[in-house]
Design a protein that fits this description.
This protein is mainly alpha-helical and 97 residues long. Helix content is 69%, strand content 7%.
């Protein structure tokens, strides 16, 4: 099986992109999306549902291109965004139970 075979729920992808935008700004996120060959996600985030359509491969590509664009310090920015992603995910899951 390849990474493309595995998918996160759309909601997780949306929260991740929103968190990255919060930390890097809109232009920063657009730059990373363009480098990652995912410009279609600019201003077109996945729906906030639990359909498993946001691929692991997309996450990996975004992470690799974030580091390429911003260097090792970019990982720090991303880590901060991911903390927000975790917090937001916990909040969503808490209210969905």
């Amino acid at each position: 099986m390849t990474q493309a075979s595995f998918h996160y729920p759309n909601r997780m992808g949306r929260i991740m992109l929103e968190s990255m935008q919060e930390v890097m700004g809109r232009n920063g996120l657009h730059n990373v999306l363009a480098l990652a060959d995912h410009p279609q996600l600019s201003d077109n985030y996945p729906h906030a549902n639990l359909e498993r359509e946001f691929s692991f491969e997309t996450i990996s590509t975004l992470q690799a291109n974030l580091e390429q664009a911003y260097g090792p310090r970019g990982y720090t920015v991303y880590s901060y965004a991911f903390v927000h992603f975790d917090d937001a995910l916990v909040e969503h899951l808490r209210f969905d139970d």
